[in-house]
């Protein structure tokens, strides 16, 4: 199949003409046919946007649709795929995205954004992405769905080589011979006039278990997607191996069964992939439906996860390409005797009687190792926003300032950081910008609480 994908950046608007330009590169049809096809595709995406809850992914902007801060893919029933990639550059208008670039620059920007997305996905906790050994630059030239399916198939091939698990399952059947335990009530109902038959229950060692059924369901789902010939051939090989295993009749029930079985360790990563494809809501509030197949990720959470992951690597002296050496120096100085807590949920802002209210949830809290105290040394909040000198307060949200101030005050912490992505045309004037909080409710010593803007090179 020919891949028909429109690549856009976060916050970029697109319409029928943008889809038509993609179709022109793939099909040799008349202008009118292409326009009708493009309009039909756009209407399918409009239908997706109209579905309850999907406004956080796509919104209307006049006669166009506009992406929000979720990245990933949306593939509609016709097979056309909308790829939404991280935005790491300034544009005159926020809604322009990749559309503002010339052809070669656009191609390079798209590949760079896709490679960045795949790199950031590897930092997610409890996800299968970090296990992939594909080269990001190679994958960046491929459609996103193709990338995810290949990662899944690579993991499935490893599992098949190790051998599929079997287990004892209870099988109830009306047989012509006695096997297992005779179920008297059922046998009387079904075999009153057939004394030669026996309705029995027996334990059988079979590959027809919950984990294998989930994999079979995933293979059947992926078989309905628009994939390349090579990927479809690999998928067909796996479907042949699982041919005698029925698909799951209850995804949630079967997924819950494997989680407490220690001897299914080999299945952990592949079942994480299955959950991503089957539920389509492992990382977002999107609920799978018949209108589209979507894998979408909140860029705010991705950025937070990526920054925290890189900070931990720095503290462990892991080998990294250190364009962020200066950033790490801002946070830690020369001291690596820190440990980090992410998404900490230990403090509340208010008390109502004996009940805590308004849970605080800072992105990253730094503590010193080997010190018997819960005193935070710094608090950092990550913000996936591109700052600009042209914007009021450089584009720093007042609510973000209120939020970090609440964290610092409650934790009685003197060092705060707001971490933003560093992009190619980010002006140095914003580097190391410090704000000093002077709240009257705190004592004089606490008045020296500082907030520093940091820029993380993605």
TrEMBL record:
InterPro entries associated with the record: McrC (IPR019292)
Keyword Hydrolase: yes
Single GO molecular function: endonuclease activity
Pfam family, one: McrBC
Record keywords, A-Z: Endonuclease, Hydrolase, Nuclease
PANTHER family associated with the record: PROTEIN MCRC, TYPE IV METHYL-DIRECTED RESTRICTION ENZYME ECOKMCRBC
Protein name, entry field: Restriction endonuclease
Protein species of origin: Helicobacter ganmani
């Amino acid at each position: 199949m020919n891949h028909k994908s429109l690549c856009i950046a976060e916050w970029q608007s697109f319409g029928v003409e943008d889809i038509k330009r993609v179709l022109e590169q793939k099909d040799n049809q008349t202008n009118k046919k292409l326009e009708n096809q493009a309009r039909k595709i756009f209407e399918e995406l409009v239908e997706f946007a109209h579905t309850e809850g999907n406004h956080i992914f796509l919104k209307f902007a006049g006669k166009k649709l506009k992406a929000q801060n979720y990245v990933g893919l949306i593939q509609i029933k016709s097979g056309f795929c909308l790829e939404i990639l991280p935005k790491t550059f300034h544009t005159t208008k926020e809604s322009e995205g990749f559309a503002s670039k010339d052809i070669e620059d656009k191609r390079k920007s798209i590949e760079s954004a896709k490679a960045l997305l795949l790199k950031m996905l590897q930092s997610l906790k409890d996800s299968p992405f970090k296990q992939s050994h594909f080269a990001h630059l190679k994958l960046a030239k491929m459609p996103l769905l193709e990338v995810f399916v290949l990662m899944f198939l690579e993991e499935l091939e490893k599992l098949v080589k190790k051998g599929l698990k079997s287990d004892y399952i209870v099988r109830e059947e009306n047989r012509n011979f006695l096997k297992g335990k005779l179920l008297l009530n059922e046998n009387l109902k079904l075999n009153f006039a057939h004394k030669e038959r026996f309705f029995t229950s027996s334990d059988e060692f079979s590959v027809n278990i919950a984990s294998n059924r989930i994999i079979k369901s995933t293979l059947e789902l992926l078989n309905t997607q628009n994939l390349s010939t090579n990927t479809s051939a690999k998928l067909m090989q796996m479907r042949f191996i699982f041919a005698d295993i029925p698909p799951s009749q209850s995804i949630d029930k079967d997924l819950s069964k494997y989680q407490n079985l220690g001897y299914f360790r080999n299945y952990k990563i592949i079942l994480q992939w299955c959950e991503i494809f089957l539920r389509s809501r492992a990382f977002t509030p999107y609920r799978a439906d018949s209108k589209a197949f979507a894998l979408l990720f909140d860029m705010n959470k991705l950025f937070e996860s990526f920054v925290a992951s890189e900070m931990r690597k720095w503290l462990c002296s892991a080998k990294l390409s250190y364009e962020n050496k200066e950033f790490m120096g801002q946070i830690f100085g020369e001291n690596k005797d820190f440990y980090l807590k992410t998404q900490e949920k230990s403090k509340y802002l208010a008390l109502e009687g004996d009940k805590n209210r308004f849970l605080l949830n800072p992105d990253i809290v730094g503590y010193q190792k080997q010190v018997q105290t819960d005193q935070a040394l710094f608090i950092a909040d990550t913000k996936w926003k591109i700052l600009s000198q042209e914007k009021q307060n450089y584009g720093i949200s007042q609510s973000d300032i209120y939020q970090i101030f609440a964290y610092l005050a409650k934790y009685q912490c003197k060092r705060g950081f707001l971490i933003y992505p560093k992009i190619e045309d980010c002006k140095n004037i914003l580097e190391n910008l410090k704000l000093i909080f002077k709240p009257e409710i705190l004592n004089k010593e606490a008045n020296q609480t500082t907030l520093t803007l940091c820029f993380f090179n993605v």
